[in-house]
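Suppose you are handed a protein chain with no further information: no name, no annotation, nothing but its sequence. What can you learn? This example shows the usual starting point.
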Amino acid sequence: QVQLVESGGGLVQSGGSLRLTCAASGFSLDYYAIGWFRQAPGKQRDMVASITAGGSTNYADSVRDRFTISRDNAKNAVYLQMNSLKPEDTAVYYCNVLGAARRKPWGQGTQVTVSS
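A reasonable first move is to predict its three-dimensional structure. Written in structure tokens, the prediction is:
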């Protein structure tokens, strides 16, 4: 069964850090570009970071220099290290394969709440 499971979210104070994990099952992440997305209440789901199969990364301006995306193909997982968190980072975070044609079923996401 193809599945993406996000974990590592929580409640943190402004300026704090969290590390999110995206674990895949039922398929290998090795050959895919993967993105981390977030959706705040009442807003659309936006991509905040991505990593290609070769390890090249890209970030939204709002998180650049604060977030770091990485992957461990041996563990079939992708990570998002989030530092210097701000209240505006509060959202449900999801991971998925890039490209609409390749997208997998969305997971439940992991809630990140940053208090001021």
